[in-house]
C-alpha cells in the first residue's frame, strides 16, 4: 500500500473538469513558480519540513532515541565531533548528562524549524545560536555534517514520505543564519 504522507500537497486539476488548455496554462505557471522558488525555503517547503520534522522527532522518549541516533551518526561520520561534547558525557552516550544535552540540541533544531515561517523571530534565534557556538569555537562545517546526519535519520524514519528538497533548502536557511 502507498504510504499516506502528511502534508502531501497535490493539485487535483484532473478531477475538476478543467480544460486541457487551462491545465496546460496551470502547469506552465506552476513550473515557473517552482523554478523561481527552487532554491529557497518558501511557505510550501517550510510547511513540509515542519510536518516531516514533527513526525520524525516524535514525542517524549522517542525524542531521546531519535537524538541518540543523530549523535551516533554524527560521531560515526566524523569522529572528531565526539570531542566537542566531552564536557556533556559523549564518552557514554547513554548517560543522563549526554541525553540531556542531546535534548537541548534537538530542542534548538525544533525551535528553528518551528520558526521557519516567522523570519524576524527565526533570525533573532539564529543570531543567539550563532553567538553560543562562536563562543565555543565550533567549526561552522559541523552544522553541515549535522544536517547530513539529521537528513539521513529523518529519511529513515519517514521513508517514501520524505521530501529531500524541502529539507535541504530549509535546513540550509537555518545553518546560514547560524554560520553568518
From TrEMBL:
Identify the domain of life.
Answer: Eukaryota
State the InterPro entries in the record. Globin (IPR000971), Globin-like_sf (IPR009050), Globin/Proto (IPR012292), Mb-like_M (IPR044399)
Q: Which GO terms of the molecular function aspect are on file?
A: heme binding; metal ion binding; oxygen binding; oxygen carrier activity
- The Globin domain is annotated at 40-180
* Keywords assigned: Heme, Iron, Metal-binding, Oxygen transport, Transport
> Which residues, if any, are the signal sequence?
none
Positions in coiled-coil regions: none
One matching Pfam family is Globin
**Quick check: keyword Isomerase in the entry?**
no
Q: Does the keyword Transit peptide apply?
A: no
- State the family named in the UniProt similarity comment for this chain: Belongs to the globin family.
Q: This protein is called what?
A: Extracellular globin
Amino acid at each position: 500500500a502507498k504510504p499516506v504522507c502528511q502534508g502531501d500537497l497535490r493539485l487535483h486539476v484532473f478531477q475538476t473538469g478543467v480544460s486541457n488548455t487551462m491545465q496546460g496554462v496551470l502547469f506552465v505557471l506552476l513550473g515557473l513558480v517552482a523554478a523561481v522558488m527552487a532554491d529557497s525555503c518558501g511557505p510550501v517547503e517550510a510547511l513540509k519540513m515542519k510536518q516531516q520534522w514533527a513526525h520524525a522527532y516524535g514525542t517524549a522518549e522517542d525524542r531521546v532515541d531519535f537524538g541518540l541516533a543523530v549523535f551516533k551518526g554524527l560521531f560515526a561520520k566524523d569522529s572528531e565531533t565526539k570531542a566537542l561534547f566531552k564536557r556533556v558525557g559523549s564518552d557514554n552516550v547513554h548517560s543522563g548528562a549526554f541525553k540531556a544535552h542531546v535534548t537541548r540540541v534537538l530542542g534548538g533544531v525544533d525551535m528553528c524549524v518551528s520558526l521557519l515561517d516567522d523570519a524576524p523571530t527565526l533570525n533573532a534565534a539564529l543570531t543567539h545560536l550563532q553567538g553560543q557556538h562562536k563562543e565555543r569555537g565550533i567549526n561552522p562545517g559541523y552544522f553541515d555534517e549535522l544536517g547530513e546526519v539529521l537528513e539521513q535519520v529523518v529519511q529513515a524514519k519517514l521513508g517514501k514520505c520524505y521530501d529531500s528538497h524541502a529539507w535541504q533548502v530549509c535546513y540550509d536557511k537555518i545553518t546560514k543564519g547560524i554560520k553568518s
